[in-house]
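Comment thread on ticket #2218

A.B. wrote:
> Attaching the input chain for the structure job we discussed in standup.
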Amino acid sequence: MDHPFYGLPCLSGLEAFEAFARRRSLKLGASELDIPPDVAARLIKSVENELGVSFVAPSGTGLTLTGPGEGLYRVLADTYSGVADVVGKIRRE
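C.D. wrote:
> Ran it. Output below, let me know if you need it in another format.
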């Protein structure tokens, strides 16, 4: 295996994107991760740049998810939910 993270982009960037997408707010997502919003924005942008696609687009009320952004968010949310289930089971054992 050449890439230590299964060929994925920056995991911190994916985490910042998931928090933004779930909260639908850069400020709230960044606060949840205890990082400044500008850092969260840079992390998200680094993933977009690496993959050559935009996940976030300006809208009349701020920012919204693009089609690829919605798709990535759904997969990340499902994955994190599955991990949370397994961790919960481990803690109960």
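A.B. wrote:
> Thanks. Noting for the ticket: The helical segments are 11-23, 26-33, 37-51, 67-92.
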